[in-house]
């Protein structure tokens, strides 16, 4: 048995091998392209003077939580200044942005509610959402259609909360707040905006993304709260949650991250007061900051940024770290953003512009990147493959996934190259009756492969593996699947996992978790008859919660018009009926596939 220290050392070694180990970093004196002090307010004389005056008047510490004697007139002054600046009814000051996210989300939603999270939300919001125990639905980045579909499917929830950022911290992109406000009203949802990277940068007097949207006609309806952190453009620390008087009162009672922590110190609170006063005067600096950000993006042939953040896509963690070190050697201080902060294969150098930087310095950065042979088209991926995977998952075992897979393969053949694999086969004592052989019978002359793992017991993968004294290794399974995709070389590889969506692959990993890790396209297969509504809707909910959005729902069995219609209204994807084919032959399944509309549904997989 390894000691605790040996186990921790082993975990650190694994993080090191994956290029995910972190260390603390001091702010550089020169060449700073990564800290969030956009306007240099951390060193502004007025801000420092306000902090010193607060120290003299109130002392070094707040001594307690604000509910137990740590409150002061200075906290209220900072809140009033923030509310006035951002044109909100009230504000509540938290010690940090993470605590503000956890506090407001925990006060607003809980069990029985749904939080709609953009895929690129930063960790503070994701952690806060998890702590609420509300159901989380993760939608593709800035995909309003996917969000609307998810809202439509969640009309039975007690409360629905749309969470977004004014400027996304890792991508530098911005949502369409006008449309988000409209969706919130239409589906009786609430809207929460984290303005960490937009307050101070966007809008009149730096009032943020919502302030800028209101100038364009955004409605105030159903906006429940905004979060503004003090450690970004304000150059200090802490965070404000802005909203109604009722919201503030509710947080005073329910926000655990506010109740059970010492109040922000007098120095920090005083500095925040000074920073709020100063930032409203920096209109010229705001223009310069955004001009420089756009100039940098244009020179690098990258999308126009919404604020001061310009992500330079790299791909692999190893290359991102290598480029960071080479730039640092030239006096250019940047930092690599790697998984788990961003998804695998999406490592980047995150450049943060500052108002004090010059066009000459920006051009030097551009030249340095070009000299290192970086271009948007030179980005290597973590997994290189010209083919795509299409997973076929089911609501249950023996639901008809294999027959549906055969139909999908016939449809795919009309569009281009395709193949089939079943990574794990259970109940494999008779190889002739395996799913892979059934596919070979129904789709002749198809690229198929022997399963990576074949287990004799007809049970869930984790139980079938335990019965023969083995455990499925998911990383090895991923490597095997990547190899099949490389063999495929182009087109689409249909992947059929064993059993239903939620069956355990290992004691720790469900098949649904594995699908979510891969983030592949998928089709859901369900029965058509009695009982399908409950099973299918629960499975759809599990998929959407994991940011998996089916390309189609295939109902296998005797057609049932009422079930089909009910699921079509809620599935947010095409619903296709696959009747029982007698006899089930290659010709019969092909005829169904070509008349089902599947070729049109699957065509985007080849684009």
Overview of the molecule:
By secondary structure, the protein is α/β, with parallel strands linked by helices. The protein folds into 3 domains: 43-279, Type I PLP-dependent aspartate aminotransferase-like (Major domain) (Aspartate Aminotransferase, domain 2), CATH 3.40.640.10; 283-378, Alpha-Beta Complex (Aspartate Aminotransferase, domain 1), CATH 3.90.1150.10; 387-606, Rossmann fold (3-Layer(aba) Sandwich), CATH 3.40.50.300. Helices cover 41% and strands 15% of the residues. The protein is built from 23 helices and 19 strands. Helix 7 (177-186) links the parallel strand 4 (160-165) and strand 5.
Key words describing this protein structure:
607 residues, Aspartate Aminotransferase, domain 2, Aspartate Aminotransferase, domain 1, Rossmann fold, 3 domains, 7-stranded parallel sheet, 23 helices
H/I helix tally: 23
Rounded to the nearest angstrom, the radius of gyration is 27 Å
As for the number of domains, it is 3
CATH topology of the largest domain: Aspartate Aminotransferase, domain 2
């Amino acid at each position: 048995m390894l000691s605790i220290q040996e186990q921790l050392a082993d975990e650190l070694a694994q993080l090191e091998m994956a290029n995910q180990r972190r260390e603390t970093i001091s702010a550089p004196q020169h060449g700073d392209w990564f800290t969030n002090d956009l306007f240099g307010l951390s060193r502004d004389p007025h801000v420092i003077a306000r902090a010193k005056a607060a120290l003299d008047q109130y002392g070094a510490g707040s001594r307690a939580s604000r509910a137990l004697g740590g409150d002061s007139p200075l906290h209220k002054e900072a809140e009033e200044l923030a509310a006035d600046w951002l044109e909100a009814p009230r504000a509540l000051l938290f010690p940090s942005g993470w605590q503000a996210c956890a506090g407001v989300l925990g006060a607003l939603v809980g069990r029985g509610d749904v939080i709609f999270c953009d895929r690129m939300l930063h960790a503070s919001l994701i952690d806060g959402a998890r702590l609420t125990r509300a159901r989380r639905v993760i939608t593709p980045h800035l995909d309003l259609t996917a969000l609307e579909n998810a809202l439509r499917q969640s009309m039975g929830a007690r409360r629905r909360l749309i969470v977004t950022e004014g400027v996304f911290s890792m991508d530098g992109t911005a949502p369409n707040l006008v449309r988000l406000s409209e969706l919130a009203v239409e589906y009786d949802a609430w809207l929460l905006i984290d303005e960490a990277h937009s307050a101070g940068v966007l809008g009149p007097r730096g009032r943020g993304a919502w302030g800028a949207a209101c100038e364009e006609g955004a409605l105030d309806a159903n906006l429940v709260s905004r979060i503004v952190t003090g450690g970004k453009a304000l150059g200090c620390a802490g965070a404000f949650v802005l909203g109604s008087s009722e919201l503030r009162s509710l947080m005073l009672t329910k926000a655990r991250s506010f109740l059970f922590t010492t109040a922000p110190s007098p120095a920090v609170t005083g500095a925040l007061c000074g920073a709020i006063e100063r930032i409203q005067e920096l209109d010229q600096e705001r223009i310069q900051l955004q001009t420089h950000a756009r100039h940098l993006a244009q020179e690098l042939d990258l999308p126009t940024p919404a604020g001061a953040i310009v992500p330079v896509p790299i791909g692999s963690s190893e290359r991102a770290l290598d480029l960071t070190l080479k730039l640092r050697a030239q006096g250019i201080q940047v930092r690599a953003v790697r998984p788990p902060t961003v998804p695998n294969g999406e490592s980047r150098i995150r450049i943060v512009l500052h108002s004090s930087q010059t066009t000459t310095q920006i051009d030097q950065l551009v030249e340095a990147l070009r000299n290192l042979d970086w271009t948007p088209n030179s980005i290597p991926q973590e997994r290189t493959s010209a083919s795509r995977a299409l997973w076929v998952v089911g609501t249950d075992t023996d639901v008809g996934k294999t027959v549906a897979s055969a139909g999908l393969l016939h449809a795919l053949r009309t569009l281009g190259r395709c193949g089939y694999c079943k990574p794990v086969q259970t109940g494999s004592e008779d190889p002739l009756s395996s799913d892979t052989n059934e596919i070979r019978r129904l789709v002749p002359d198809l690229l198929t492969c022997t399963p990576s793992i074949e287990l004799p017991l007809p049970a869930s993968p984790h139980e079938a593996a335990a019965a023969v004294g083995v455990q499925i290794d998911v990383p090895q399974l991923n490597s095997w699947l990547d190899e099949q995709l490389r063999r495929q070389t182009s087109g689409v590889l249909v992947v059929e996992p064993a059993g239903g969506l939620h069956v355990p692959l290992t004691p720790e990993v469900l098949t649904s978790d594995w699908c979510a890790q891969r983030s592949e396209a998928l089709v859901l297969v369900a029965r058509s008859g009695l009982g399908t509504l409950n099973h299918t809707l629960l499975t759809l909910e599990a998929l959407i919660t994991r940011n998996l959005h089916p390309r189609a729902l295939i109902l296998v069995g005797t057609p049932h018009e009422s079930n089909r219609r009910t699921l079509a209204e809620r599935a947010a994807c095409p619903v296709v009926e696959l009747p029982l084919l007698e006899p089930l032959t290659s010709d019969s399944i092909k005829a169904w596939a070509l008349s089902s509309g599947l070729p049109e549904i699957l065509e985007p997989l080849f684009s």
